[in-house]
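Hi,

Apologies if this is the wrong queue. I'm a grad student, and the batch job for Helix-turn-helix domain-containing protein from Streptococcus suis produced an output file that my downstream script rejects. I'm not sure whether the problem is my script or the file. Here is the sequence I used:
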Amino acid sequence: MKLHLGKTLRKVRQGKQISLCSLADEHLSKSQISRFERGESEISCVRLINILDKLNISLDEFLILHDSDYTNTESFAKLIQYIRKQYSSQNIDNIASLLSNSSKYNLNPYVRTMVKSILHTLDSNIVPSDEELLQLTDYLFKIENWGYYEIILLGNCVRTINYDSYFLLTKEMLHNYIYSSLNKTNKRIVTQLAINCFILSIDMEKFSNCSYLISEIKKLLDNELNFYEQTVFLYATGYFEFKRSGKGIEKMKQAIQVLDLLGEDKLKLHYTSHFDKLVNKK
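Support response: The file is valid. Your script probably expects a header line. Output copied below for reference.
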């Protein structure tokens, strides 16, 4: 499958006004680079990274430029963007249509299970089969390096995967997610999913699991300016303390106040409602 990486490289090189001669060395000749740019030959990943170093562009940045030019509309990231837009508008029919044979998105079995799990949060009558969920969890348990794809699959199946499997998969994700200091998207989503697992663990009174997650989430949030995650974690910590000892009310109140200051009206309403049911028994 041609990925047009060479065309992207030529675009970057010419944009920086750097000649082929400047990139050539004893490992890769001018003619080899030229053929790669024209799509007539391939080069190894190591050679490509070496060229990118000379161009002073990271692999992450290069792939972002490449994706913006050549990723087709059926890509996983664009599918997720589409689902988010439809979900925020509660367009259940548009999401359900993704499962039809006429959809422009060609969904593999794992993504179909994810879509059914998302639909389940809107319509409890729609649910993946036990076999579908088993196939998905088997796949995730075998993953050694969790990328955006695996992280999103797990995150959207929280309500359909049984708790024990969900917690164990969250641990796998925490230990094995792919991190880049230049693109912290994965780390931020992992943090959000860990907090979600923490809250679910509190709901189910799995307190030893909660203690583990608190430790891991603190590591994720260390030296990060993620106000949303910090605030939700503050609320969840207060919730945990309240469930265990009746304390933690002030932490929950502080978190709700911060959400108000941040203008997060929907989140404030959500956690205020949770607080009232929990503490005020409303």
